[in-house]
Predict the structure.
Amino acid sequence: MGRWDPDARGRLMKAAMELYAERGFEPTTVADIAARAGLTERTFFRHFADKREVLFSGSAALQELMVGAVAMAPESATPIEAVAAGVEAAAGVIRDRKYSLERQKLIEAHPVLRERELIKMASLASAFAATLRKRGVNDPAATLTSEAGIAVFRIAFERWVKDSGNREFVALIREGFAELRSLVA
Amino acid sequence: MGRWDPDARGRLMKAAMELYAERGFEPTTVADIAARAGLTERTFFRHFADKREVLFSGSAALQELMVGAVAMAPESATPIEAVAAGVEAAAGVIRDRKYSLERQKLIEAHPVLRERELIKMASLASAFAATLRKRGVNDPAATLTSEAGIAVFRIAFERWVKDSGNREFVALIREGFAELRSLVA
């Protein structure tokens, strides 16, 4: 195994998910994950800060993508339309429903993971609000719209991974925004 | 100082806030807080799990009060009206704006406190959703309405503590719900 391995990250993620499923999240160590992937602990830590972060791999890139979509919404878009564009952009890249469901079950079962998820979602909402402010939306409208949009995102995601009807993620997001509108009307 | 002190809790809270302001949150120890209050560390831990919890004292009671108000909303209330009743109930008991502002600044300045706050808010949203389900509201409507209501609560609270216009908390909550309605329309 050379020091440089183009797929080290993917192998570590796969190994981690296997071990979390087989042995549970708590008992699994970074050493176990590295060994299963045929890599060193040192390599693990070049890719992830800790064993929780494996489950949030790509969250910075996802945030950039979603924030980019808010920023690029047409000038004529209302704040909620811009936020909806940001949330819908996620559906273009979150495609692996089986992985997403396994990950979601792990997060729901472990308060330390749930905590990390809450922080990521709060960060995403803040980034959305900052982007809306750049679009000329004042507070509290910017924050309120962003928080509401992130709530739609989280709920649509949970429905998507658990839904037995195999409905599309983007359809559930659109339904969520429509439902929000009718609920607060 | 007797072992039993009816106001130990209040004195510990006051001592903690003073020390957090004077020395900062991180350097302050539980021993410092107990000493300032003229009490023992043992007494501190009878009241609070750690030095973070001092800032979330009463959050369980607040949650009960708010959830109670959702449950007691008239049968004819829509889900968002029931949630709004729960959020407004908070304004009846959160009255000390000066303390609330100091607390808010501390929370914003320290990620460990921000984390704890996010967890409390997620728990409140879950409790609201469970109460709506008991009222016959299905998911995702129950979760979505609750999350949106908690977003209004958090934003109204922040505005209230920082607002230079001395506006009433309940007025800012009502404005938040009205704004949410117009933003998603």
Summary: The longest helix of chain B spans residues 111-134. Residues 107 and 113 of chain B are 5 Å apart (CA to CA). Chain B touches chain A at residues 78-80, 114-115, 118-119, 122, 140-141, 143-145, 147-148, 151-152, 154-156, 159, 176-177, 179-181, 183-185 (CB under 8 Å). Chain B has a mean pLDDT of 92.
